[in-house]
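Standup notes
- DV: blocked on the single-chain target, sequence here:
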Amino acid sequence: MKIYSHRGNLSGKSSRENEPAFLKEAIAAGFHVEVDLWCVDGAYFLGHDGPAHRIELAEFDREEVIFHLKSPHVPPLRHADAFAIENDTYVLTLRGLLWTNYGQAPTVQSVMCSPELVGDARPIDEFVRAMQQGAAGICTDYPLLVRDVLAAR
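- DV (later): unblocked, structure below
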């Protein structure tokens, strides 16, 4: 099962979310990352509520990265994945995964969003144990905890 660091977080929400160096730290720690991508006048930016950190797309076009598209533009990616979602139950990513909102049943193609991403109080370890046999991945603000839970099984 792949573990996706939500915006680069490793042990809970951080003020450094979506910062390029923060994302690289999560990748260096062995995780995939989900990051918010904006395209403005042909330039690419990372940031949740708006374009905040300008990047060269090629620097993050790697298989450990999945972009949450925040503007109506599909970037020319060779290695990274991407999806656009608002309030949908799930969406298909460019590489054929099902990005799946919390509360849905897992499938072998699903990357499941963990409970804290929607403010649910369900314990993450309980969620991970329930998902570990049926999902392709989990996206979380706590990838270090998820890795520990998976290692303990």
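- Follow-up: The beta strands are 2-6, 32-40, 43-46, 53-55, 65-69, 81-83, 90-92, 98-100, 110-113, 137-140.
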